[in-house]
């Protein structure tokens, strides 16, 4: 395998490299909810993966063998299947990052204590 | 059906899910539109990489443009068919709807996850 074969995989790595740091920066709890994360990715990703399989098989689009890794699943490069995991995942991280930032939980911000915490109800 | 038709259907389905079926109503919130604005910027970059280099190639009969890979014009934006924007919008919205739908429903649960400021 030569370097060009990693062209598509590199794009997925770029997406993850850009969003994973949001987890520590905004103390996101996305990774602590693996069941919810998996359900969301499967629920949204599967219909689009089915669309992708259909589109590839009827020839709406095709993949360059010289710029993808050699492994194929149902005619799709492995990266194309990973796309439907990576893109939903980074979308969720972005949404939660924005939600946290807009609620003042940015990098270096103190975790706000809720009123009920102070009353010792938990 | 062409990619153009399917992409338009995808957008409508995602919007109908959000507004009227699942009723997560993300598309009424600033949080979601701001997130989408960030995501679509990076989509243009990464998709430009995939389509500009010809990693993914399109059948001219399935899209608005032709098989010419141009920066802008001929139904393309940063090398990618404009249909990809609709595909991306539908995928990202559907994902965020599902994530929100499977999330905590009560204020107490959300607070436990640090998702509200009480």
TrEMBL record, chain A:
Keywords: Carotenoid biosynthesis, Isomerase, Membrane, Transmembrane, Transmembrane helix. GO terms for cellular component: membrane. InterPro entries: Lycopene_cyclase_dom. NCBIfam families: CarR_dom_SF. This is Lycopene cyclase domain-containing protein. It comes from Nocardioides oleivorans. GO terms for molecular function: intramolecular lyase activity; lycopene beta cyclase activity. It is a multi-pass membrane protein. GO terms for biological process: carotenoid biosynthetic process. Pathway: Carotenoid biosynthesis. It holds the Pfam family Lycopene_cyc. Residues 11-96 form the Lycopene cyclase domain. It comes from the Bacteria.
UniProtKB/TrEMBL annotation, chain B:
One of its GO terms (molecular function) is intramolecular lyase activity. GO terms for cellular component: membrane. One of its GO terms (biological process) is carotenoid biosynthetic process. Keywords: Carotenoid biosynthesis, Isomerase, Membrane, Transmembrane, Transmembrane helix. Signal peptide: none annotated. It is a multi-pass membrane protein. Pathway: Carotenoid biosynthesis. It comes from the Bacteria. InterPro entries: Lycopene_cyclase_dom (IPR017825). The keyword Transmembrane helix applies. The chain crosses the membrane at residues 33-50, 85-102. It is found in: Membrane. Its main location: membrane. The keyword Transferase does not apply. Residues 2-97 form the Lycopene cyclase domain. This is Lycopene cyclase domain-containing protein. It comes from Nocardioides oleivorans. The lineage of its organism: Bacteria, Bacillati, Actinomycetota, Actinomycetes, Propionibacteriales.
């Amino acid at each position: 395998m030569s370097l060009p074969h990693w062209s598509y995989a590199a794009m997925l790595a770029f997406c993850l490299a850009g969003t994973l740091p949001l987890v520590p920066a905004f103390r996101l709890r996305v990774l602590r909810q693996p069941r919810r994360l998996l359900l969301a990715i499967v629920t949204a990703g599967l219909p689009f993966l089915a669309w992708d399989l259909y589109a590839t098989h009827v020839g709406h689009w095709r993949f360059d063998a010289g710029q993808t890794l050699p492994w194929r699943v149902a005619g799709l490069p492995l990266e194309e299947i990973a796309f439907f995991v990576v893109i939903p995942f980074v979308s969720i991280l972005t949404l939660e990052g924005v939600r946290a930032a807009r609620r003042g939980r940015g990098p270096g911000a103190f975790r706000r204590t809720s009123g009920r915490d102070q009353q010792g109800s938990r | 059906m062409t990619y153009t038709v399917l992409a338009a259907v995808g957008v409508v389905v995602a919007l109908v899910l959000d507004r009227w079926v699942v009723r997560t109503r993300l598309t009424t919130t600033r949080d979601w539109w701001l997130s989408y604005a960030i995501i679509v910027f990076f989509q243009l970059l990464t998709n430009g990489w995939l389509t500009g280099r010809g990693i993914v190639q399109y059948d001219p009969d399935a899209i608005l443009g032709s098989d010419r890979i141009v920066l802008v014009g001929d139904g393309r934006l940063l090398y990618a068919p404009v249909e990809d924007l609709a595909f991306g919008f539908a995928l990202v919205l559907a994902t965020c709807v599902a994530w929100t739908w499977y999330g905590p429903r009560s204020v107490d649960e959300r607070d436990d996850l640090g998702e509200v400021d009480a």
